[in-house]
Amino acid sequence: IVDRHSRKERHQRIAAAAGERHGREWRWMSTVAFWIASCFIVGSLLFITGGVASIVGHLYGWLAPWQSRALITYAYFAGGTYFTAGAYLGWFININIGREERLAVPCAGPQGGLSDAAFWGSLTYFVGALAFQVAVFVPILMPDAHDLVTFWLEYFAQAFGGFCFFFASVIEWSHNRHASPRERVFWLCAFYAVGSLLFVFASRLELR
After folding, report:
1. DSSP designation for 145
2. Residue 110 DSSP symbol
């Protein structure tokens, strides 16, 4: 989640540290940020592949069953895996900013100057990604699952993940409510909110 108001202050605190410490901290943040962006880019491309294949397959019936599984089921699963990894890394970098020892998970809530919005927004997004990953894994693990299992572990999990994404986008919008269209964070929040709403809408159709 974008933390516009405290980002400059965090960078100033990091830059004020000893030279070698500053170098290590900055390189670590840049490395993790690179993998976050990479995971989301690859995951997005896989989701696009699955979405286009799904539309083509349903409208024109061009896909054989094995092609449908490869281009839709497995593409969504792989995309969800990358998104879950990226979401976790987003939470991971937030809970470790300014720490001497890295934590895989926090022992408590926001610490070390981390804002509540950054902590809870990134955590909510990670939880939503986990829920979606469960939903896309069910067709692979249990392709002939009972309707009740499919409803809760696939359709409901998708809807829950969508609401988590939307709630995280609300946290981000609220935290960056003073951003203007001239700032990149404004458009990031806007695209995030629109994408989350579309995700909720699509998952809601599955529940019908």
Report:
1. -
2. S
